[in-house]
């Protein structure tokens, strides 16, 4: 019990007792419902449970920085003609190089994935979360190696505060799940969207290779496009968005991430110590550099922190496709690309497998400083 002492107007001392906050028990009770944040939102809660209270969301300096976020915007790159017009391709490569070095984020339009596929993918995610709770509970799991993993907060038991978000994810490459292991409400579109994103990913790695001054096939040849993890997020409407986060600030641990977001918004990127809104653009996809690409480019391309703020409007849905073999076994070693290092620019990182990097990153939960310094030489 927690005791608080007070003094009344007549000078009498009073002692009041309050039940001690038992975070572990409250986390387990929430997890045991298997209904996630959406279950809380659907129940009509007007106060969010204390396990979601996030001190980061109360940081006034971060609120102030976010308030001025409309003055600058994340770079946008138009892929129209990039495969047919050499001069156009040169412009695109330069824009990607600049964005990857300074922002770590950019949006792409005319990327080749039909708008109908993007819309159906978002609808498929909505259909999954709108299923009867009993159906979803059957899929709820903390086993990261299941063909499809659905839960709320992968780091629920290790992070200081929970995020206002539910997720289902699956490893779609190099070893995709059997179709019957995918939810029927979004099975077909998940397979089709994956096919389209894998194709776009290979093109992005070609352009990124050229932006590094390498052979266009370099990043694909070393396996950057080999693995794909697709994570489908749901951020329900939050009654107290000022007290929590949709996603705490973090950097992604893969090579690149391709993000499909809906019209609601909430994604912010940390640029020059200010939070900048990544405003939704119809038909666009958001691309960001991951830790592993920063590592193999010897810090030339930047993996930057980003977050999602909670919102009274929702549910917001997004689909993050991470190019990484993640926790799947692989013996491939990744270190700074030899063509990018020299006597004046020596390797800054030791070689590491994707599995070991991701395992170290996940063990730290979604909060804290970047894992990259742990792998630096010296």
Automatic annotation (TrEMBL):
Key words, A-Z: Iron, Metal-binding, Oxidoreductase
Similarity comment: family membership: Belongs to the iron/ascorbate-dependent oxidoreductase family.
Domain Fe2OG dioxygenase: 224-326
UniProt xrefs under Pfam families: 2OG-FeII_Oxy, DIOX_N
Protein known as: Fe2OG dioxygenase domain-containing protein
Taxonomy of the source species: Eukaryota, Viridiplantae, Streptophyta, Embryophyta, Tracheophyta
Region (Disordered): 1-20, 59-81
Molecular function as annotated in GO: dioxygenase activity; metal ion binding
Cofactor(s) listed in the protein's UniProt record: Fe cation
